[in-house]
Input
Amino acid sequence: MLKPTRKLLELSALPGAILLTILIAFLSLITSKSFVTAINVDNSDKYGHFISYFLLAYAWLYATRPFSKISKTAVVLSTIFYGIILEVLQGTLTTDRSADIFDILANSTGVVLAVLLFKRLDKFSDENKKNCPNK
Output
C-alpha cells in the first residue's frame, strides 16, 4: 500500500470507529417503524447485527492498532459489552423494540470473527513488511 494512503487510513481510523459506534447506537435505539424491511428472511435482523458488530470490532481493532497498550482483548470485551448495553437500552428505553439474547449472540459472533480476521490480516501485513522493506 502506498505510504500516503496508509497514513490517511491511520489518521481516519479513530474518528471512523467513533462515528460507527454512534451510528450503531442511533440505529439500535430509533423506532423500528423507521426501518424498511427489504429482506424477507427469517431472523434477517441477526445478519444486520452480525455485520454491524463485525465492522465495529474491526474498526476499533484497526483504530487502536498503533497503541500497543490497548489489547485486542480489551477491544473485544468492550465491544461485546457495548452490544449488551444497547440491547438492554432497547428493552427499557424504546416502546416498540425489545432486548433479544439472539441479537447479543449475533453481535458477539460478529466481534469474534472480526478479531480472527484482523489477527490473520495483521499477521499477513507484518509478513509483507518483512519481505518488502521498501513499502
About this structure: Residues 49 and 107 are 5 Å apart (CA to CA). Residues 3-33+44-131 form one domain.
